[in-house]
Amino acid sequence: MTQNMHTSSQEDPGSISQLQNNVRQAERRFQGVFDQAAVGMALVSFDGQWLQVNQKLCDTLGYTRLELRSMNFQDITHPDDLDIGRASAQQLVAGEIETYAMDKRYFRKDGSLIWAHLTVSLARDKTKTAQYFISVVEDITERKRLEEALYEQQEATRQMAAKAEAERQRLYELFNQAPAFICLLHGPQHTFEFANEHYRRLVENRDILHKSVREALSDYDPHFFELLDTVYTTGKPYIGKEVLVYNGGQESYFDFVYQPTRDALGKIDGILVHAVDVSEKVHARENIKKSEQRLHLAQRVGRIGTFEWNLLSNRIVWTPELETLYGLPPGGFEGKYENWAQYIHPDDIAAVEENLQQAIASGSPYNIEFRVIWPDGATHWLRGMGEIISYDDQGHPQDMVGINIDITERKETEQQLVRVTQELQDFASMLEDRVDQRTEALNQTNKELQRSNQELQEFAYVASHDLQEPLRKIQSFGNLLEEDHGKELGSGKMYLDRMRQAAARMQVLINDLLTFSRVTTKALPFSTIDLNQIAQEVVDDLEVQIQTTQGTVEIGQLPTIQADPVQMRQMLQNLIGNGLKFHRRDIPPVITVSAELLPATEEEQAENPTPAYCQLTIKDNGIGFDEKYLDRIFIVFQRLHGKGQYEGTGIGLAMVRKIVERHEGTINASSTLGEGSTFVVTLPISHATQQEYTHDE
């Protein structure tokens, strides 16, 4: 066993020699590759010392091999790049990576700077122990220069693109601010690249961006698309004047320009659409045309003609309407002053020329009425008016414009008016005489009315004294006759009773008539009264009648007014009393009294905006009446029922109307037979003046 070990431990000289030879050959091949490599190569110690360098590296850095081997890589590395790759080198030594690469800068011997692409690997011995770095250095200065040039070019391109985009956005902003309808179409499909607010409103705010016109505006007239195709293919702009467009259901007019756009090489790449709304201009022109037509019509109907007179050339331009005023056919006036003057009435020519010359000299308006003689000999009246409208450089009058108006009818009317005025004066004189006569008659009538009023007052006195006395005697003697001879009268007592009843009715009638007459003869001045208090007093007076009929009187809120308190009480007592009296059998009467304040008329409100009238409504549920008798119920002694049905003399409502009229009010009634009646009394709340009344004893 020892022998075997000895034998195996012996080295084969031939084998060792062969290995050594192989190693030397490998070293020579490596050295040959190392020296002849097309890139710089170096063996570098861990502290950065150049251990071995090839000629390409020397040529790249400008140093000799001896010079480089006396230096380390830190000596020629740009200061900013010293720390680059430090971490990678540590990873390489630690065996974490097999190689690393980077770009870094080196200083050449002449001080110039080069860029190099450095690739580093690690040389290890048989035991895998790290020996040194193997560095491959490739000069990439030119590549870096090209990269930098490319970057600068790209940066310039980016800046140009940014500038172009900024210009585009500024242009778009200007388009948005422009008072026009603008859009940009791109490519042969006319894709919407931009549209300002005005244009988007024009197309009813559709979603059009980045869509072709045929897609975005599919409902448009095909001729529109064909027009765009023509502009794009021919390069000729299209200009449309006052094109009618229905915008939002309304007619609008636009001036359109379709202008082809070109790229940097001059090739057509789109269309700029520019439109301006000229609807106002079109409508204004149409309005002017209509105004001119109306003016011509007004001149023709109003018989007005216009002229323009150039004082320097003595030429006059007339309108056809003016020729008509002179009885001339169209074109019948030759346009000179002398031709015009020959138509003026001989008695008026001097005044007309004086007025014209004064207007020319002073600049005052030309204004005069004169007669013209037509070719057929007829005379017509005209009014001429005009003024100077321009002067030359020396301040001399140059042009006058004016009108002539046919005033023949007015002149004839004036003459007729003179005749009518004279006739009216004659008629007025005659009328004065008749008025004097009528005044005398009215004075006589007034005296008769005064006498009638005096007689009425005397009647009231007689009714209150003389007529009452015989009635009292009739009743007294009737009573005595019954007391003393009642048994002897027998059947004659019936006549005695009828006599006394007739006397009693006569007394009631006289009392009512006396009350009716006292509405004016015994009236009190108006004072401020509370109708609530008056109405309550009336209800208290009618308490027995209310209980007898089991009736109800409802009083609403009533206002305070200016009135005669006694007459207001009489009025309400009659109206409420009628409601109680004329009730339906077996149905208790219900009377309501309400009030409403009414505004004044428009003229009255201008002076006083407060309510001016009080409207009283007295409503009952009684027997009612046929409204065909409405005009009779307010007349004295008029009754709609027999004396045996309802008591009374027929004076109550007549007195109510007289009281209302004395207060400058109105009374109306409405009724349905068998259902009830409603009386509406309207009274002024206040009176402007306080009337005075006499009081007869």
TrEMBL record:
Keywords (A to Z) from UniProt: Coiled coil, Kinase, Phosphoprotein, Transferase, Two-component regulatory system
Recorded GO MF terms: phosphorelay sensor kinase activity
Name this protein carries in UniProt: histidine kinase
Pfam families noted in UniProt: HATPase_c, HisKA, PAS_3, PAS_4, PAS_9
E.C. code: 2.7.13.3
Domain PAC per the UniProt entry, residue ranges: 100-152, 366-419
Domain PAS: 26-96, 318-363
Coiled-coil annotated spans: 410-459
Enzyme class per UniProt: transferase
SMART domains (alphabetical): HATPase_c (SM00387), HisKA (SM00388), PAC (SM00086), PAS (SM00091)
Domain Histidine kinase per the UniProt entry, residue ranges: 462-687
Catalytic reaction equation(s): ATP + protein L-histidine = ADP + protein N-phospho-L-histidine
InterPro entries in the cross-refs: HATPase_C_sf (IPR036890), HATPase_dom (IPR003594), His_kinase_dom (IPR005467), HisK_dim/P_dom (IPR003661), HisK_dim/P_sf (IPR036097), PAC (IPR001610), PAS (IPR000014), PAS-assoc_C (IPR000700)
NCBIfam families: sensory_box
